[in-house]
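Input sequence (114 aa), recorded before submission:
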Amino acid sequence: MAWRLSLVLLPIAAFLAWDRARSLGHALIEASLVSRRGSLVRRRSALACEGVIGWNLRRSFFQRRAGLATLVATTAAGRQRIDVQDVPLGEALRLADEALPGLLTFLDWADADS
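Predicted structure, token format:
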């Protein structure tokens, strides 16, 4: 019985994964961070880069294996965060540095003096 159910659920899960991957996206447009995500219900979020007060980088077990990360822009406004999901780690760092130039390099410089 369970194997029959798995035969039905596997194509549905594969379709949802394909649809979710197809809807992912991010961009920096005119000093605004824009992120898109979702599968059956797509969401697009936008935030002015000057409203970003910090960055969080999260990586699940499966994201680490695939070399991906979720970049979270924290803000004091609205939902208080914007997620940029499943981006390559290097792209996440480049995006954070491009959105707020000097923040990441400032942190490296500050650590070098201590």
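Checked by second reader. The mean pLDDT is 86.
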